[in-house]
Amino acid sequence: MSGRIDHGLVVALLAALTLPTCSSPDVGGGILRAGGDLASALTGDDRFSQLGEASARSLRSADDFLPREEHFIGRAVGAAALSNGRFALLDDPVVSDYVNRVGLAVAYSSPAVRQTFKGYRFGVVDSAELNAFAAPGGFVFITTGMLRETRNEEELAGILAHEIAHVTLRHGLKAISQSNLVEAGGLLTALAADHASAAASDKLELQEQLKNLSLVFGQSVDEVVFTLLSGGYGADQEFAADDLGSRMAAEAGYAKNAVGRFLAHLPDAADGGGWLSTHPAASDRVEQLAASGAGGETPGMELRQRRHQTILARLR
Amino acid sequence: MAAALATGLLVHASAAPPTLEEEMLEAGSMGRVATETAIVRGAPRFFAENLVRLTAGAQVEIVATRGAWYQVRVPGRKAVTGYLHSSALASESRYQLDVERAGGGTVTYAERTAAARGFSPEVESRHRMERPETERGYRQIDRLERMQVSPEQVAAFMRGGGMKP
Question: Which of A77, B22, B55, B130 is 20 to 30 A removed from A117 (C-alpha atoms)?
Answer without folding.
Answer: B130
